[in-house]
């Protein structure tokens, strides 16, 4: 029974609205006047906007490439943090005399800066290919002239900061490349000195000198063959002279002399062979030299010799000198051939070592050249930025003092509090109907009695007391509504005339 009695349909709600209209009008009027009062007492907020165009660099990028590679969105975030820094906003507040009353009341500068930072808004506007072509700067405040002035001031800060940012980045890029270039130059010089020292140290064994060494060896071998042929001829000539001298001395009287001469010639031959084998300080050479001197001294004591024998001996002495000279030349040529052969044998090793040094030097030289090209490009880009021929921000529309406030919005306030008033009234009526367990109408009665049809219904007979109570309730409701209207008009009018301002710590959505 109770569950059937608590079922409420739309018709019941409509009937309740007609009977209990004051439960709707009272909260509706209260919320409407609250909204009107808030619209009157809330401070007016004005918003100024300036449009800044992102103008690309004047010089084509194919000729001078900019060193600032970051995107415009990233740079705008960096610039926003720089422009909206505490020091910058504090300077604007002090120079433009903003928040005078708050400062007079001793409000902290941190709070004023935070409040001003919230009032600034930067929005990007995309161009072709998803790139930002422009952006807007908005600022909200209570004074329209101050709002426009602050907005233009922020726009000028953005432009100045952008130019400084690009110039600073270009200069830092140039300095970085210059530092890297100097370090690479030192490394290149060190490697160049290593290659130079290595070439000087192993001059003659380098790969490019291999052909020259082989050619020199061939020439020396030809000369050695010629010297050896001359030596063979000189040895044969000496044998002939020795034979002639022996024959001549054998025909002369005095066998002792002949034996002494033969002995002298034998000792000289042994001396020559010993000199070819040993050094001059060798004991065998010294002993042979002493024996030759002794025999020669004896020969001089025997008196003069045959003129023909003397001439042959002179020729024999000349032949000995020639042979010694040819032997010396042959030995020298052999040493030279061995020297150049050693060079040829060392050439593959030098080629491998030099290839390693040259490879490192070549790589460093290529890196140095590439870095040098980038350094020159960075210098041109830096010059372009300093002349303000790179990418720039240009103000298209300067901020003008706004005439209409953007907050509070009377349409939003009216709609919000109208919905609140109607919703509160409807909620109260629904709650009252839900809590009322009385039966209203024949249909509800039939539903309560499980389908038993109702034969007749007796209308409610109101007594005089009931009629007076209804009249009192109606007049009371009308009076309450009139009272709310009067009080609301007085409060709103008083606030409007006396310019009452309500500063809320939390911003409202309207």
How would you explain this protein's 3D organization?
By secondary structure, this protein is an alpha+beta fold. Among the domains are: 2-42 and 408-497, no CATH class; 46-180 and 378-397, Alpha-Beta Plaits (2-Layer Sandwich). The chain is 71% helix and 6% strand. It has 15 helices and 4 strands. The chain has a 4-stranded antiparallel beta sheet. Helix 3 (22-41) packs antiparallel against helix 13 (410-435), helix 5 (86-95) crosses helix 7 (109-118) and helix 9 (210-251) packs antiparallel against helix 12 (307-386). It is rod-shaped. The model is unreliable at 1-6 and 253-257 (pLDDT under 50).
CATH superfamily of the domain at 46-180 and 378-397: EIF_2_alpha
Indicate the mean pLDDT: 77
What is the string of SSEs from the N terminus onward?
HHHEHHHHEEHHHHHEHHH
The CATH architecture name of the domain at 46-180 and 378-397 reads 2-Layer Sandwich
Reported for the largest beta sheet, the result is: 4 strands, antiparallel
Instruction: State the helix count.
Output: 15
Strand content: 5-15%
Radius of gyration: 62 Å
Poorly predicted runs are 1-6, 253-257
Distance between the termini: 48 Å
In short:
By secondary structure, the chain is of the alpha+beta class. The protein has helices spanning 2-5, 10-19, 22-41, 72-83, 86-95, 100-104, 109-118, 144-201, 210-251, 255-277, 283-301, 307-386, 410-435, 442-448, 464-497; strands spanning 46-55, 120-126, 132-141, 392-397.
């Amino acid at each position: 029974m109770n569950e059937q009695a608590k079922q409420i349909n739309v018709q019941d709600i409509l009937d309740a609205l007609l009977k209990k209209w004051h439960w709707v009008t009272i909260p509706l009027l209260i919320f409407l006047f609250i909204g009107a009062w808030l619209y009157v007492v809330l401070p007016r907020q004005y918003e100024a906007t300036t449009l800044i165009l992102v103008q690309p660099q004047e010089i084509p990028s194919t000729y001078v490439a900019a060193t600032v590679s970051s995107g415009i969105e990233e740079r705008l975030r960096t610039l926003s943090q720089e422009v909206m820094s505490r020091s910058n906003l504090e300077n604007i507040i002090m120079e433009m005399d903003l928040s005078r009353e708050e400062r007079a009341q001793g409000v902290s500068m941190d709070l004023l800066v935070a409040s001003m930072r919230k009032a600034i808004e930067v929005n990007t506007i995309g161009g072709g290919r998803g790139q930002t072509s422009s952006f807007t700067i908005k600022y909200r405040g209570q004074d329209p002239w101050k709002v426009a002035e602050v907005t233009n001031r922020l726009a000028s800060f953005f432009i100045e900061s952008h130019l400084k940012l690009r110039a600073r980045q270009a200069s830092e890029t140039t300095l970085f490349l210059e530092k890297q270039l100097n370090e690479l130059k030192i490394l290149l010089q060190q490697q160049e000195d290593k290659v130079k020292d290595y070439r000087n140290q192993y001059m003659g064994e380098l790969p490019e000198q291999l052909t020259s060494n082989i050619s020199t060896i061939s020439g020396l071998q030809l000369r050695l063959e010629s010297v050896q042929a001359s030596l063979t001829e000189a040895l044969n000539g000496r044998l002939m002279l020795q034979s002639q001298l022996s024959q001549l001395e054998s025909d002369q009287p005095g066998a002792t002399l002949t034996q002494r001469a033969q002995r002298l010639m034998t000792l000289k031959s042994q001396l020559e062979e010993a000199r070819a084998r040993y050094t001059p300080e060798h004991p065998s050479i010294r002993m042979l030299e002493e024996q030759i001197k002794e025999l020669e001294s004896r020969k001089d004591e025997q008196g003069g010799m045959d003129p023909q024998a003397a001439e042959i001996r002179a020729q024999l002495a000349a032949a000995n000198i020639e042979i010694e000279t040819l032997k010396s030349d042959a030995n020298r040529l052999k040493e030279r051939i061995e020297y150049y052969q050693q060079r040829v044998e060392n050439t593959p090793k030098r080629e491998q070592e030099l290839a390693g040094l040259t490879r490192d030097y070549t790589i460093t030289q290529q890196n140095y050249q590439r870095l040098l090209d980038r350094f020159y490009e960075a210098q041109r880009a830096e010059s372009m930025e300093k002349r303000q021929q790179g990418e720039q921000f240009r103000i298209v529309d300067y901020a003008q003092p706004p005439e209409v406030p953007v907050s509070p919005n009377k349409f939003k306030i009216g709609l919000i509090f109208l919905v609140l008033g109607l919703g509160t009234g409807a909620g109260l009526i629904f709650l009252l109907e839900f809590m009322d367990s009385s039966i209203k109408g024949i249909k509800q009665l039939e539903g309560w009695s499980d389908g038993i049809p109702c034969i007749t219904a007796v209308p409610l007979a109101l007594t005089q007391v009931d009629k007076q109570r209804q009249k009192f309730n109606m007049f009371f409701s009308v009076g309450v509504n009139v009272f709310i209207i009067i009080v609301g008009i007085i409060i709103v009018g008083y606030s409007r005339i006396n310019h009452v301002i309500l500063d809320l710590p939390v911003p409202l959505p309207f």
